[in-house]
Backbone:
C-alpha cells in the first residue's frame, strides 16, 4: 500500500477518535447539568446520607452454599487482547477464502529458505519408490509435500524476523513470541513428514519398514541411504538361518516325536490286525466288496460235484 493512502487512513482514524472524545465530553456535561438541576430542586439536607439501593435481581448465596456447589467449570475459552481491526481485515479473508494462486506464488518467491537450514524444505520422495507406488498415493504425497513446502517458507520468514530482532533489537518479549511461533510451525512440518512416511509404508515390506523407521529424513523422505538400508535388510534376512542358533524349541520337537513313537509302540494296540481282517482289506490296500468271499465258497461245491459225477461214470 503506498504511503499516501496510509497517511489518509491514519488521518481519518484520528478524526474519528476526536469526534468520539467530543461526544463523550458533551454527554458528561449534560449529565452534570441534570444532576445540578435536581440538587437545586430537591435541596436535600447535607447531614442526611443517601440511601444505597442494591440490585436485588440476583440473590447472593451464603459461603457454605457456594462450597457445597463446588468450583465453577471453566468451559469458556480464554482469549487474548483485541487486535487492530485493520490487521484482522487482512487475514480473515484468507482464512475463509484462501490465497489467490498468483499472490501465493509471489509470497513463496519473496521469502527464501536460508542457505544454512535446508531442512526447512519439504523432503522429496525417494526415487526407488516412485515406480513402485500407485498414482493416487503419489498424488496425495505430492499435495502434502506442497503444503509442507509452504510451511517451510513461513518458518523461514519467521526465523529471519527473529534473527533481525536478536542482532539489532534484542527485545526478550518479541523474541519469545517469535520463537514459540517457530516451534509450533516446526511441529506441523514434522507431522507432515510422519504422515507421508505412513502413507508410503503401507505398500512396503515389513522388514524394510522396520529398518526405515529409525532413519531420519534429510533431503529425501526416507533418507539418502534408503537403497543401502534395503540391501542390508535383505542380506540379513537371507543370512538369518545360518547366523542364528537352533532354538531349544526345534530340539524339543524332535525329542517329543521320538518319545511319542516309543510310547505308541509299547502299547498293546500296536500289534498288527488278525489275518481275517487282512483278507477283507485285500492286497495293496484296495477295497474289495464283502460278497466276493461268498461267491468263491458257492463256486467250490459245484466243482466238487462235477468231479464226483465223472468218477462214477468211469467206474
Residues:
Amino acid at each position: 500500500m503506498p504511503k499516501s493512502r496510509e497517511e489518509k487512513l491514519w488521518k481519518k482514524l484520528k478524526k474519528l477518535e476526536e469526534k468520539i472524545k467530543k461526544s463523550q465530553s458533551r454527554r458528561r456535561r449534560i449529565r452534570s447539568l441534570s444532576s445540578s438541576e435536581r440538587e437545586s430542586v430537591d435541596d436535600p439536607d447535607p447531614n442526611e446520607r443517601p440511601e444505597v439501593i442494591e440490585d436485588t435481581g440476583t440473590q447472593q448465596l451464603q459461603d457454605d452454599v457456594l462450597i457445597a456447589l463446588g468450583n465453577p467449570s471453566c468451559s469458556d475459552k480464554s482469549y487474548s487482547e483485541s487486535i487492530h481491526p485493520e490487521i484482522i481485515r487482512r487475514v480473515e479473508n484468507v482464512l475463509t477464502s484462501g490465497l489467490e494462486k498468483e499472490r501465493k506464488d509471489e509470497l513463496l518467491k519473496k521469502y527464501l529458505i536460508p542457505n544454512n537450514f535446508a531442512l526447512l524444505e519439504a523432503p522429496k520422495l525417494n526415487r526407488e519408490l516412485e515406480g513402485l507406488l500407485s498414482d493416487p498415493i503419489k498424488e496425495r504425497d505430492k499435495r502434502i509435500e506442497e503444503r509442507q513446502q509452504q510451511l517451510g517458507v513461513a518458518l523461514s520468514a519467521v526465523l529471519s524476523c527473529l534473527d533481525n530482532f536478536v542482532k539489532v533489537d534484542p527485545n526478550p518479549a518479541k523474541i519469545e513470541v517469535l520463537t514459540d511461533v517457530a516451534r509450533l510451525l516446526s511441529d506441523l512440518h514434522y507431522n507432515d513428514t510422519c504422515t507421508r512416511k505412513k502413507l508410503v509404508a503401507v505398500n512396503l515390506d515389513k522388514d524394510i519398514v522396520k529398518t526405515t523407521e529409525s532413519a531420519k529424513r534429510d533431503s529425501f523422505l526416507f533418507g539418502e541411504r534408503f537403497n543401502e538400508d534395503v540391501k542390508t535388510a535383505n542380506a540379513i534376512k537371507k543370512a538369518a538361518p545360518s547366523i542364528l542358533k537352533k532354538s531349544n524349541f526345534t530340539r524339543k520337537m524332535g525329542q517329543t516325536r521320538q518319545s511319542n513313537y516309543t510310547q505308541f509302540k509299547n502299547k498293546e494296540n500296536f500289534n498288527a490286525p488278525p489275518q481275517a481282517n487282512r483278507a477283507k482289506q485285500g492286497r495293496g490296500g484296495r477295497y474289495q466288496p464283502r460278497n466276493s468271499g461268498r461267491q468263491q465258497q458257492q463256486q467250490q461245491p459245484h466243482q466238487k460235484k462235477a468231479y464226483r459225477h465223472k468218477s462214477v461214470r468211469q467206474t
Notes: Residues 3-42 form the longest helix (40 residues). The chain has a mean pLDDT of 76. The radius of gyration is 48 Å.
